[in-house]
Amino acid sequence: MNRGAVVTIMSWAAVSLTGCAFGVAVSSDSGDGEGGSVTVGPGATGGTPSGSASPLDRTVAPSVGPPPSLAPPEAADYTLDNGLRVILVERHTLPLVSMALQFNGGAAAHPASQAGLAGFTADMLDEGTATRSALEISEELDFLGAELSTSAGYDVSVVRLNALEPQLDEAMAVLGDLVMNPKFAEADLERVRRERLGRILQRSAQPAALADDAFLEVLYGQDHPYGAPLMGSSGTLSALTREDVVTFHRERYAPGQATLVVVGDIDREEFDSLVSSVFDGWEGEGVAPPPLAQPDGHRDGRVVFLVDRPGSAQSEVRVGRVGLARSTDRYVPTQVANTVLGGSFTSRLNSNLREDKGYTYGAGSFFDLRREPGPFEATASVATPSTAESVVEFLAELDRMGREQVPADELERARNFIALRLPQRFETIDDVVARLAELAVHDVPLDFYAGYVEDVIGVGGDEVQRVGTDLMDPEGMVIVIAGDVSVIEAPLRALGIGPVHILSAGQP
Amino acid sequence: MKRLDIPSERHRLDNGLRVVLSHDDTVPVVAVNLWYGVGSRNEQPGKTGFAHLFEHMMFQGSEHVPKNRHFELIERAGGASNATTWFDRTNYFETVPSHHLDLALWLEADRMGWMVPAMTQEKLDNQRDVVKNEKRQRYDNQPYGDWDERLQKLLWPEDHPYHHTVIGSMEDLDAASLDDVASFFETFYRPSNAVLTIAGEFTRASVLEKVDRWFGDIAQGDAIPPIPGRSEVPPLIGSTMRDRVVADVPLPRVIVAYRIPPYSSDDFAVVEVARAVLGAGRASRLYRRLVREQRVANDVVSYAFPLMSGASMLLVWATGFPGSDEAALEEALTRGVSDLADVEMSEVERAIALTETDVVRSLETVAHRADVLSMLELHFADPARINREVDRLRAVTVEQIRSFASEHFGPDNRAVLTYVPEDGS
């Protein structure tokens, strides 16, 4: 994994107005390809650009001219003889090239009993190849000024590279070597396993991780890949063998399962000759990820699960259910509905729990959209004495989403927030790679964003309300809370919102 | 590597507001960024944490902007907004589609000029609760969460402005009143104590006129009072200071901090490169030795605080494994640092190459570029330095690092904070 355990703590001590809950409200909501320029937008209504001669009126927001147009660059999309799909966008503003070599299949491609395997394999790629030691790999990349990282999510395993254009050939040669010839030496496997066991232990002390892990297990069941944490548990990670890693690598890291998304200071001809020299002789169909079983988690009405963390100053609250797959045709209305509920600073959850009640530093919600339906969850870390009151507010806000239509002004704000920030989501070459890579893995057409702004602006209050009734109904929610059970249990039981169970705590 | 060529124009309004403009039309987005020259170092005894609480109050409305409207309008425009408080400054920033530049300027000008009339006791009580929850979430409820508070106490004497944390004391916050809010505003939130940077796509011909329209009639105010306490301290701590904490933490961790020259010192570039030799990337000294070779550490962290007043701090930490010997971990860590006295040329070259590309990459977004320009104007009156940051790093020599290491990384300049799991495992 990237710089792995070497963490730089830029401004950890800086204290900010909001946590990061809103910037990442939807974990995989993005993508873009080619397409028309973005020219519509409610910002266009009325007014003239504030000129020089008109008197200054501070009492009203300045009126604006039409929004600027965003013309996403053309993406070339083609497949090489060995099955590798290439998606290429030229952007020549800086002498940099960013790419993601992405493979179908991450943690959901192995059984939950092998939880941690996808991440462990990714972590091992830069620990040595047939011809380069781990130290040589790190030093070579550093001297080239290249950033390389390897990781695995539920749906994909991915190697990312950001390199300076003049050093691209050498940097890509390293990337190719890692992917094609990893050594997986026993001694390195044991060292990396030990480090990852340490990280699992660290996670087990973090209240947010305790709540997240318990929430996923309750929703999906312990035999479903989505029910297990990406890191795995100490039990599953300890049981993995070198053979498991080698097999996972052989099945996943094959050109037949791969997409290479590249954006930056490069043209196609140049890049094609580079790819054919770097990946010379790389062959293989690989194995498509197996289909997933149905989630086998809790589904018998609303229920509360508590994870005990004695002495906690706050309770980590998760309220949610199994949500949608990225391929859903309700993607756009779902984004709008979530923005209203918990996807922005002014969303109902944050306005209520933070700006009105002061129970928390921030509350939000998101749909984690995966190949198969991922979780929908509303979350906050709330002061321990306010835990039950907070749950009441969560349920009330969820209920309101389905019970009544969002007022026109609030709806417009949410739609604009999503539609008009599109240019910001294409600002850097890494951004463009991320957008395209996400479309590619979910088989969404690369011109998805051509009509995105119009689609978002066209979402009606009735569609948003249907998302509320179908997916946010408080009656069907699972509630998981990691906190001090001795304080929070009785008030939660007294709410009478459903059975309350205590989960055994902190099993890493 | 291609030389950086980020434009920057400096201006100053009649009321003292410093303005930096940096045009770039890569994407139709513009960043508005304000740095105020006030942070936790300006807090009086008994008022710790107030600069940050005040930053929260700046989002509670102003005379022409009701509570919540700031975020509502920015979101409606498809923008983003936030603010942070640090030891030496407080920053506020918006990134918006470029046709909404006026909106961001109006919002920032209104709270710079007309914040106090909108303040109420209810808003203060609400944000005090929010900030307390911020402290609970980010510090109290996290393993090792009090490390910075403990380390700052070891590194700086009690009357030094960095002796206390930015988040401050909750008891002090309980005592804060609406009068404190008004007086903090009058004292520090003056145009002459601020830098406004606009970076991204804007119309060059009219941008300065816009700034003057929105900000030009805000009264200048008086010079800000001196920083309380005593900023000047000896360059070295003088001994090894220690704090050993038995706590509910999963793994032992040793954190070692060194007193270093302030960010404004020419030597700070030496520290930055030394830091990268030690801890940047997997080929770094500490990672290579402690994680890969000796296998005594599970992770290694390093950070040089860019602080302005008197002296700053370099820290390194290593997290061990269950049952790790804390003394051995400390020895491996401190030796890894003090051995920089024999650092090799290739290590320095690697560190400079890595740091250089980090600098260049971080400047790809208009938001970060604006933030760096504001910082360089506020602290050095020299935003054009943004293009010379890389040269500063490249100029660092092996000899400089060796001599810096032998002067600063001995046992007479260490603060050692050790966390040990409660159950003794």
Supply the number of structural domains of chain A.
2
The number of E-state strands of chain B comes to: 11
CATH-derived topology of the largest domain in chain A: Cytochrome Bc1 Complex, Chain A, domain 1
**Number of extended strands of chain A:** 14
| SSE string of chain B | EEEHHEEHHHHHEHEEHHEEHHHHHE
CATH class of the largest domain in chain B: Alpha Beta
Largest sheet geometry of chain A: 6 strands, mixed
Report the average pLDDT across residues of chain B: 95
Largest interface: A-B, 102 and 103 residues
Task: Give the distance, in angstroms, between the N- and C-terminal Cα atoms of chain A.
Answer: 21 Å
The CATH homologous superfamily of the largest domain in chain A corresponds to Metalloenzyme, LuxS/M16 peptidase-like
Helix content of chain B: 40-55%
Our estimate of the beta-strand percent of chain A is 15-25%
The spatial strand order of the largest sheet of chain B comes to 1-2-6-3-5-4
H-E string of chain A: EEEEEHHEEHHHHHEHEEHHEEHHHHHEHE
Number of separate helices of chain B: 15
Return the CATH architecture of the largest domain in chain A.
Answer: 2-Layer Sandwich
Please state roughly what percent of the residues of chain B sit in beta strands, choosing from under 5%, 5-15%, 15-25%, 25-35%, 35-45% or over 45%: 15-25%
* Mass-distribution shape of chain B: globular
Oligomer: heterodimer
